[in-house]
């Protein structure tokens, strides 16, 4: 199977796969690009070739996704764990939000899934996929 990670100095960089048509998801992707000063994360939209291949690899239908994912090598984080891993990876002060891990996953994930299922209705849907700026493009697969 194709290897999707990118290596920098021998370490794997996590890839965030997100819905580029979703207003909330695109805003989150832009937030990551603007606040990830170390360049820790790469991003891939589920509508693109790399993002849809990653979804298929982990058994998620890219046309009907129920979660965003953060992939590091063969490890995949879904649902609220994906969101919390993003904030942890951004460093301080965002890392403080990882305190929400004390809330059990069986309580966090239903809230995440409700928002994910209703994301277009609540936040809106773009007419076209969000595109990164030229400076951001090198971090979007």
Observed structural traits:
single chain; 141 residues; alpha+beta; four-stranded mixed beta sheet; two-stranded antiparallel ribbon; 5 helices; 6 strands; 16% strand
Number of strands: 6
In the residues, how many domains can be counted?
1
Helix fraction bin: 25-40%
Our estimate of the beta-strand percent is 15-25%
Structural class: alpha+beta
Low-pLDDT windows of residues: 5-10
Q: Strand order within the widest sheet?
A: 4-3-5-6
Oligomeric status of the shown chains? single chain
**Helical stretch tally:** 5
What would you report as the Rg, rounded to the nearest angstrom?
14 Å
**Spatial separation of the terminal alpha carbons:** 18 Å
The major β-sheet equals: 4 strands, mixed
Order of helices and strands: EEEHEHEEHHH
Indicate the mean pLDDT. Answer: 87
Judging from the principal axes of the Cα atoms, what is the shape?
globular
Describe this structure in words.
This protein is α+β, with helices and mostly antiparallel strands and 141 residues long. It has one domain (14-125). 37% of the residues lie in helices and 16% in strands. It contains five helices and six strands, in the order E-E-E-H-E-H-E-E-H-H-H. A four-stranded mixed β-sheet has the order 4-3-5-6, sandwiched between helices. It is globular, with a radius of gyration of 14 Å. The two termini are 18 Å apart.
């Amino acid at each position: 199977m194709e290897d999707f990670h990118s290596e920098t100095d021998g370490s794997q960089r996590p890839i965030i796969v997100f819905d580029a048509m979703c207003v909330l998801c695109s805003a989150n992707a832009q937030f990551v690009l603007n606040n990830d000063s170390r360049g820790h994360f790469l991003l891939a939209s589920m509508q693109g070739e790399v993002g849809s291949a990653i979804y298929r690899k982990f058994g998620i239908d890219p046309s009907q996704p129920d979660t965003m994912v953060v992939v590091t090598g063969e490890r995949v984080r879904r649902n609220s764990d994906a969101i919390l891993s993003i904030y942890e990876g951004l460093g301080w002060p965002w890392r403080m939000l990882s305190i929400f891990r004390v809330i059990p996953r069986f309580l966090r994930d239903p809230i995440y899934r409700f928002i994910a299922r209703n994301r277009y209705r609540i936040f809106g849907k773009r007419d076209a996929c969000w595109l990164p700026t030229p400076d951001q493009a090198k971090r979007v697969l």
